[in-house]
């Protein structure tokens, strides 16, 4: 039975509030499974270094003081984004020409090699070069979005687009947990790895090898199972005779429009809001490991690598339910635009509240000696003590805030993928449209680490009152998210309609 025949009915509410019933095409899992395997590589490798990058840079002895470490962390993280931004407008248009599958596999092979090089870093220069090379190969996000948009139809587009942030968030959670648990294994697990000289010499190689293993799996599965989705109408072969004009009419080929032609006022407004929200999110994402690793007396939480990895991955369980069940229902009922606005509104208070947890961590540090000892509490009675209760309170508040932010993240950034696909005039421009969005993301990943490291370093060096103390970077993020929400209110409701779908239908009925 074909996919078009095997459909299930879903109740949806149109933009004018009327209920209707549509028949939803089942998801093409035969192609989605290899695509998921391919896509998982980037978020895993991106998040895997977050729990230990502060300690890694600290071990290079390039910073003059502990308060300057965040500057070098920012430079290292930004190097990935600089190189990704340079090549991001290369991968999308390249996939429009040579096909989605070869572009994905080429990038994945480069990602595999460069991440192993990063794990072999013994100096800041080596790590910087390896991370930069990794960024050159990490332009597959736009191509994956194009593949999903081409596999989907109007009935299942929201469910398929919801897979993108699901894959990203699951990869981020797995990567963060792997990085936190496996970094410096000789120190963390002396009985198991104490005699492994290679891990004494390269303390961060083990998590990088695990990350490379997942990339290898994605590469193999992609080579064996992934099919090409780009369809280009070939030029018709016409017989030539004496009546054939010397200048024949243009062939019926789907040529992508120029990049500037895609920048309509609505698309510019959407990209501007995406830039502000993405910048706030990425700055927060980059500054969190620094904030978590910094001493409570300097405005941080005082966590070690294991606790940082745990706190970054703790929301992984909620991701599956929110992404696969909650979001598609909300999108069918309210539309992608309303979900986008709702997500931005939810994320805004997260940035203002999170840094206040440092006060509780500082109190724990004065009472017991460090907030990272939560993982050392083995006996139940220790949790009943005053210090144990405060540990529990700290982690409870942190988990609630992380899940709260995750809900907003899923609503906003799943919806933005749908909205970008909706605005693309045709399938031939999906690669270029998604590359423009990926360019914005790469720009944010360039600015984010530099801003996070430099602003955080400046704020903890100068003992200024709120909001210019350690809260400064978080206040900036919250303000950016607020203005992104305000800008989203100016988007027309027409962005909820898949424009290239209308183009195809019109051309087919003509």
TrEMBL record:
InterPro entries for this protein: MFS (IPR011701), MFS_dom (IPR020846), MFS_trans_sf (IPR036259), Tet-R_TetA/multi-R_MdtG-like (IPR001958)
Protein name: Major facilitator superfamily (MFS) profile domain-containing protein
Subcellular localization, as worded in the UniProt entry: Membrane
GO cellular component: a single term: membrane
PANTHER family named among the record's database cross-references: MAJOR FACILITATOR SUPERFAMILY (MFS) PROFILE DOMAIN-CONTAINING PROTEIN (PTHR23504:SF15), MAJOR FACILITATOR SUPERFAMILY DOMAIN-CONTAINING PROTEIN 10 (PTHR23504)
Gene3D superfamilies listed in its UniProt record: MFS general substrate transporter like domains
Main subcellular localisation: membrane
Stretches assigned to the Major facilitator superfamily (MFS) profile domain: 31-496
Transmembrane regions: 69-91, 103-120, 160-182, 202-224, 270-288, 308-330, 342-361, 393-421, 442-460, 466-485
Membrane topology, from the record: Multi-pass membrane protein
An annotated Gene Ontology molecular function: transmembrane transporter activity
Keywords of the record: Membrane, Transmembrane, Transmembrane helix, Transport
């Amino acid at each position: 039975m074909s996919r078009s025949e095997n459909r299930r009915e879903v109740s949806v509410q149109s933009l004018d509030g009327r209920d209707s019933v549509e028949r939803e095409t089942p998801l093409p899992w035969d192609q989605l499974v290899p695509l998921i395997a391919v896509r998982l590589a980037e978020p895993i490798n991106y998040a895997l270094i977050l729990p230990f990058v502060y300690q890694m840079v600290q071990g290079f002895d390039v910073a003059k003081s502990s308060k300057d470490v965040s500057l070098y962390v920012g430079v290292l993280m930004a190097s990935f984004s600089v190189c990704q931004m340079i090549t991001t407008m290369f991968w999308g248009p390249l996939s429009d020409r040579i096909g989605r599958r070869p572009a994905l596999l080429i990038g994945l092979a480069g990602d595999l090699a460069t991440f192993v090089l990063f794990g072999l870093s013994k100096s800041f220069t080596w790590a910087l070069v390896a991370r930069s090379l990794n960024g050159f190969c990490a332009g597959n996000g736009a191509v994956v979005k194009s593949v999903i948009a081409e596999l989907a139809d109007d009935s299942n587009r929201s469910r398929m687009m919801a897979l993108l942030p699901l894959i990203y968030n699951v990869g981020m959670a797995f990567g963060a947990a792997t990085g936190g648990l496996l970094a410096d294994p000789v120190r963390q697990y002396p009985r198991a790895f104490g005699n492994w000289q290679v891990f004494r010499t390269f303390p961060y190689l083990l998590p990088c090898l695990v990350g490379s293993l997942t990339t290898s799996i994605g590469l193999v599965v992609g080579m064996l199972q992934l099919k090409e989705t780009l369809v280009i109408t070939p030029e018709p072969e016409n017989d030539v005779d004496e009546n054939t004009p010397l200048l024949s009419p243009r062939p019926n080929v789907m040529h992508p429009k120029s990049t500037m032609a895609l920048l309509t006022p609505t698309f510019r407004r959407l990209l501007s809001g995406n830039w502000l929200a993405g910048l706030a999110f990425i700055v927060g994402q980059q500054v969190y490991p620094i904030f978590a690793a910094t001493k409570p007396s300097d405005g941080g939480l005082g966590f070690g690598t294991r606790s940082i990895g745990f706190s970054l991955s703790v929301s992984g369980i909620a991701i599956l339910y929110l992404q696969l069940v909650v979001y598609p229902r909300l999108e069918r009922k309210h539309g992608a635009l309303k979900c986008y606005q709702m997500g931005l509104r939810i994320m805004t208070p997260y940035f203002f509240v999170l840094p206040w947890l440092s006060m509780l961590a500082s109190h724990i540090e004065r009472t017991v000696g460090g907030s990272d000892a939560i993982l050392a509490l083995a006996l139940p009675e220790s949790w009943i003590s005053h210090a144990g209760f405060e540990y529990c309170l700290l982690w409870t508040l942190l988990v609630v805030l992380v899940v709260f932010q995750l809900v907003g993240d899923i609503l906003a950034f799943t919806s933005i993928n749908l909205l970008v696909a909706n605005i693309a005039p045709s399938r031939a421009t999906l690669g270029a449209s998604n590359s423009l969005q990926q360019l914005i993301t790469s720009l944010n990943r360039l600015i984010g680490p530099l801003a996070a490291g430099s602003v955080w370093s400046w704020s903890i060096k100068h003992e200024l009152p709120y909001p210019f103390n350690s809260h400064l970077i978080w206040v900036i993020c919250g303000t950016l998210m607020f203005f992104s929400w305000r800008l989203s209110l100016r988007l027309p409701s027409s962005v909820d309609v898949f424009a290239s779908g209308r183009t195809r239908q019109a051309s087919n009925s003509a």
